[in-house]
Amino acid sequence: MTTVRNRAEAIDAVLKLSRAATRQAALFGLSLGGAAVVVQGHPLHGKSPALFRMLGRFTARLGGGLILTSDLGVSAQDFDFVAMETPFVIGATPGGGGDPSVATAYGVLVGIQAAIRHRLGRVGLAGTTVAVQGLGRVGYALATLLKHEGARLVVADLNDAHVVRAVADLGAEPVSPAAIHRVPADVFAPCAAAGVLNDRTIPDLSAGIIAGAAKGQLDRPDHAEALRRRQVICVPELIVGAGGLINVAAELDGPGYDRSVPLARVAAIGERVAENLARAEAEGITPTARRGQGRRSLDVPPPPLAPRHPHTRLGPRLASWF
Q1: pLDDT of 103-126, one tens digit each?
Q2: For the chain, how far is it from start to end, CA to CA, in angstroms?
Q3: Residue 21: which of 282, 307, 246, 270 has the closest Cα?
Q4: What CATH superfamily classification does 7-98+309-319 receive?
């Protein structure tokens, strides 16, 4: 759920995010298509039960071709209202795997650990400073995991209540949202809006590693090369942010959901990140390079495809963003 200025901007956001979801599913061998849904409105002040129930009715009319799960600006409690109108929803409060944000955060954590090993030759995060931008469900879960691993936290969020909670519960140091990318840190973890790595912010970056769950972190594709020239490692969010999608795919596989199964697969994200960074360094390309720009550093062999989902021949489109 976000604010967009017009219909064209909303369509552009939907297409970018759905392409990313499709690539992410393919990278990890998940039998899911990619989709995105944008609901116009402020994530703090624009919500209502009627809005989410209307979304549920729209989804129900598609008969399982679209399955919704929550992401930016939407909670599991919000999705309870969606679930009143359609069974094609993942991440509501009752039953199943619940909120997938913890799995997403865990994937980012193991990705950060792999990047620290690659860049600094260090095992573990004790003494590492991580600047977390955005303390929504994923960002706060990531901050909690980082604190448990001994990292020092610097945090920022537009919602002051989230920051106050992180300071009180996690001992985090607060900074303004406009300054979070500039603070001295080993890792900058964007977990909020898209386009945070741009012409304005890249020259001011202090961290040598960027790894976070925010989608579309690069404002333009050429910003990946700008980061490489500055010797900043930008871990692809398509890899580190895949934990939630992996968890949702496991829940869709059928009855008998066992959280330990997807979490074991999410833990392997660390190995994928290590392979990605090693290949990019050896070939002199960016970790986010795509086909047509030298060899494709994201093109690490995926695991075997899961069985096709029964709803459609190619699997349902999973809409994982508002």
Answers
A1: 999 999 999 999 999 999 999 999
A2: 4
A3: 246
A4: Leucine Dehydrogenase, chain A, domain 1 (3.40.50.10860)
